[in-house]
Amino acid sequence: MNPAELIVIARALVNGVISGSATPATQTELRCAVSCAYYAMFHTLAVSNANTLAGASPAAQQHWAWRQAYRAADHRPTRNKLSRASLGSRFSGPAIDFGEQFAIAQQTRHTADYDPYREFSATAVTELIDNVEAAINAFNQTPDDLRRDLAIHILTASRSD
Question: What is the pTM of this model?
Answer without folding.
Answer: 0.91
